Amino acid sequence: MKQVILTLIIVLSGLQSILAQDIIVRKDGSEVQAKVLEVTPDQIKYQRSDNPDGPAYTENKNRLLKIKYANGLEDVFVKESIPQVWQPPVKKVRKVRYSGLVEVSPYVGLQDWGLEHDRYGDRVHGVCIGTTHGIQLFGKYFLGMGIGANIEAHHVYMPFYFNFRLNLSTEQSHPFLSFSLGTQFGLPADYYDAGSSYLSLGLWSNALLGYQFKKKFYIAFGLTLQDATISDWSGDSWRYTNSEELYGTLGAIAGIGFKF
User: Fold this and answer.
1) Domains annotated on the chain, with CATH
2) How far apart are CA 250 and CA 112, in angstroms?
3) β-strand pairing of 156-167 with 125-137
4) How far apart are CA 153 and CA 117, in angstroms?
C-alpha cells in the first residue's frame, strides 16, 4: 500500500512539473517548452524543460509572439497595428521657378473714342494673341513680360507689357487675378489715304479674373483699356494728325490660354 501511495505521489509530482511549464511562442508558429528565467526589454532568458539542468538560452523578443506562463498569464510582444488614415501627398512648391503663358483673347469696345468711332463709325473689336514669360513665386505670384499682336478690322498693333498674376489658391485648380500694363506700337501699314503710312504709340492694359484648370488650361474675363496717337506720314516729313487721329477703347475681353 505504501508503494502505491509513493508511486502516485511521484506521478502527480511529475505531472505537476510537466503542467507547470512556460510556453514560448515564436512568430513563425513554433513553440518551446521552457522555464522563463528573466525578461528584459530586448531579450528573454530561459531553460528548456527537456533539459532543466542544461544551459540557459537567450532569444530576442522581436522573434517572439508571446509567452504563456504556467500560472495562466501571458506576455504578448506584438503591438496591435493602428489603422493609418490615408492622406494625400503634400506637393512641394518650389519658391521660384520659370513659368510661361500663351493666350488668345477676343475683345470688343464698350466705350470708344477717336479714329475708329469718328472715321469708320464702327465699334472697336479684335483679337489679341500674346505670350508672357516670367517667374512664379511661392506658388502664388507670377511676374512676367509679354509681347502680342492686336489684330483689328482697320489696324494691327503690337503690345509690349508687364504682367502680374495672383493665384487665389495653391491648389492645382484655382481662381486667379491678372493685371497687365504696357505700351502698344502700331505696325506700318496702308492707312486711309493712298500712299500714306502710319505709326502709332499708346497705352495697353487689361484686368482679368480667371480660373486655372489642372491640365494647365485657363479661362479669364475682364476689361481692357487701349489708346494710341497715330502719326500719319505722307511725302517727305512726318505729320502729326489732329485729335481725330486719336484712337481708344474701354472694352470687354475674354481669354483662353495655356500655362507651362
Assistant:
1) 15-76 (2.30.30.100), 96-259 (2.40.160.20)
2) 6
3) unpaired
4) 12
